[in-house]
Amino acid sequence: MTATRTALVTGGTGGLGSATITAFLADGWRVVAPVRPGTAGRLPEGAIAVDADLTVEADVRTAAAVAAGEPDAPLRAVVNLVGGYAGSGLIADTPVAEFEAMLAVNLRPTYLTTAAALPHLVAAGGGSVVCVSSRAGVSPFPGAAGYVTAKAAVLGFAGAVAVEYRKRNVRCNTVLPSIIDTPANRAAQPDADHGRWVSPAEIAAVILFLASDASAPTSGAQIPVYGPA
């Protein structure tokens, strides 16, 4: 099957990223995935790796250009999966550097990737941006103010994209997972009820839908993907 459209997927070497890339490839997409040098082997077979630091604007623009560089498969979707979690104690006990580190990990790559890709999406006639926030962004819990704030900021940013680019045929929606059932999360919480966690494949199916023409009327949505949690 010859791909006729391209998706730019960040965070592709993680549990959710691997499931998402696999879903897009199975649906016939060309997938470009920016990765840190030396980690391309962790991507699903068939993905096109581009070495990049997603906190560096020049690297991100290069990755977006590669994604948009196949005329027969124009860039139609951007999926922002890069992020991270760190607890930090109560707010008054949290150093500002730790607070800002969560913004750098969760918000900056989403901003840079989306900003770099938007001109390509517009030039191709439109497309879809999907961002990943968190249940914590709308339902905070104590001890992680930086993470909670960053994930709430992703929601605000996605809303801004949806409003600014609506008339240019670019949509932007956000998924909000609860705890994702990945090996890393199981290792971190071995005594948790893993049956209440949502699987990467389930979230990937929602992301693929939001990137597809089937969700064409939908923009600015904040979609919970909590599973049974």
From TrEMBL:
It comes from the Bacteria. Transmembrane segments: none annotated. Pfam families: adh_short. InterPro entries: NAD(P)-bd_dom_sf (IPR036291), Sc_DH/Rdtase_CS (IPR020904), SDR_fam (IPR002347). Keywords: Oxidoreductase. Belongs to the short-chain dehydrogenases/reductases (SDR) family. This is SDR family NAD(P)-dependent oxidoreductase. It comes from Actinoplanes flavus. The lineage of its organism: Bacteria, Bacillati, Actinomycetota, Actinomycetes, Micromonosporales.
